[in-house]
Structures are given as C-alpha cells and as structure tokens.
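Standup notes
- HV: blocked on the assembly model, inputs below
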Amino acid sequence: MIDEGLKALLSHGYEGAGIGPILKSAGVPKGSFYHFFESKEEFASAVLSTYCGNNQKVRTRFLHEDKTKPPLQRLRDYFDYYEEVYSSGDPAACACLLGNLAQSIAAHSEVLQRELHRSFTAWQEDFKSVLREARDAGDLPEHLDPDETAAFLIDAYEGALVRMKAEGSIKPLQRFSTMTLDGLLARKS
Amino acid sequence: MIDEGLKALLSHGYEGAGIGPILKSAGVPKGSFYHFFESKEEFASAVLSTYCGNNQKVRTRFLHEDKTKPPLQRLRDYFDYYEEVYSSGDPAACACLLGNLAQSIAAHSEVLQRELHRSFTAWQEDFKSVLREARDAGDLPEHLDPDETAAFLIDAYEGALVRMKAEGSIKPLQRFSTMTLDGLLARKS
C-alpha cells in the first residue's frame, strides 16, 4: 500500500492520487483503508516517512560509510547514484516526493508540513557533515559556509528534479553536477 | 477567470484546482466553462500562457530595458524584485506556476508539457542574453558557459521556490542570491 501510494503521489501529486486506485493496485479491499490510517493526510505522511527512511539509507551508504574516500567524492558518488536511478526510468514520471508534496499540499496540511521540514532537515544535516569534513580537509573553497552550502545544494537539486520532470530528460541533473560539484565546490587552484 | 485559475493552480496544483470553485470565485455562471475552453487542460494552458506573458514583461523591464546598468546588476535587480513580491505575501502559499505544473501534470498532458517547454525556453533565452552581455563585458567567470549557467540559474531558482513553499519562508530565495549572484557568478579578483 505504501509502495502504491508512493507511485501514485509521485505521478499525480497529493490531490490527484486517489485512495481507491491505490488500494486496488495494492490488492487491499476497499473500505479497509481506515483500519490502517485515519486520513489521506496520515497516509501520505506514512508514505513520506518510508520514502525518507529509504533515502536516509542511501545517504548513509554513500556519504558516511567509507571515510577513506574524500568527502566531496562521496557527495559525487551519491549524486551519481541518483542520476543512474532516474536514468533507468522515465524522467518525466519521476520526482522527489519532498518537492512534490511541498508543491501540492504543504500549505494545506500542518502534518505534512512538519514531516517535510523534518525530512529536509535530516537531508541537510547529512550534507552539512560531509561539507564540514571537506572544509576541515581543506577541500572546500574558503568562502563557502558548509551549512548554507548544504541547504543550497538541496534547493538546487530539487529544482533540477522539477526541470527533469518538465523536460522529460535527465540533463538538468547532469547540469546540476557540473555547476555545483565541478564549479561551485571546486577549489580554485 | 484566468486570475482565479492562477490562484487555484498555485495553491492546490492541477488536480486539486476545481473548475467549479474557480468559476464561482470569478462570478462566471456554472456550465459556461465549455463556451470558453475545450477542457481543463486547455484552461490551465491559457492560465500558464498569461502567467508567462506577465513574467516576460518583468524580464524585459529588469533585464533588457536599461542597458546602461551592468548585466549582472540587472539580473540581481530582477531576483530582488521577485524576492520582494514573494515577501509581500505568504511564502507557503506562493509558487512558480511552471514548477507547480511540472510536478503535478506535465507527465500526463502533452499540451501542458509543450507549453511548459516553451515557457522555460523563453525564460532561459532572456537569462542567456544577459549572461552573454556579462561575458562580453568580462564580468562573468571564464569557466562559466552562458547557456548552461542560464539553465542552471532557472533550475536552482525553481528549487528555491519549492523550498520556500515547504518551509513557509523566503530564506531559500536569499540563499539562492548569495550562492549564485555573490558566489558562482562573482568574478574572482
């Protein structure tokens, strides 16, 4: 049900994702929804929480596990991994659930606004710690603040995903890597 | 009707924007919708086209009219203008219609996908011409390609708007300006 919910939310947005079709795809009998969730809002919140748990695992794997790799290389590996994920499907059908829910429902649901805030914060903390490592290793341009840079990377990446969906192409993700990893974050020699 | 349609689309996304409430707010009698538009898709496309026409006027005003100003200063004035616009309302209720429709409907509507592509392209062309002027004046860091940079600025700005909506704060817009105008685009002395 969570899997089908994720697919429906990513494809149609919050308002467009119908509980009926989600239950049908998941093979869950109609009418049993409210045994599991109090409302559509609670359901979307559970989907978001699972989605973010999975993303957290990917971040741990790429950003924190192998400390022998230079921090900025780990960040690059992380973005490369997602570029591959998005390349393997239809880019027009993909999206980030955070950006998607932010656009479609955040303003109307305190539950989801809180959950989104929590998710963005966790993501940002992970980037921040890698960027601090990079700074301590002397690999980050001096004028960049790790906290602000972490937040900006997330913002810019969310936008690249929006554009990917609009254009049905992963070019914006490649552009993101070129402009940030090879540009903004590259230490001037 | 276009005005009310814009408000509804920005606030609820494509699927969440009901034609009924839009007609009611606009004082247009129920049932007359199909005298004006063939479908909701065509209506959203007309709203998008009007929205982009207005944005085009803002771009012309800030980016092209006063050629005595340095190109990058014009770009900054443009972003400052929008920061003021978004500050004057509730950031959680604001959004860019392009990013919004890209998330909620682009994958399901060729009409809107085409219109979105057209709108992003027009926007990008305007940034490109200003960045080329900056390059010709020696004001752009040499490693930056005006075309790629124009596209990246739009991507990153779209993401800042998503985050603004998620967080209910204009901080992401300020971060965007700091990281791009004061960072990426600043010529190293």
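- HV (later): unblocked. The CA atoms of residues 43 and 130 of chain A lie 33 Å apart. DSSP finds nine helices and no strands in chain A.
- Next: hand off to the docking folks.
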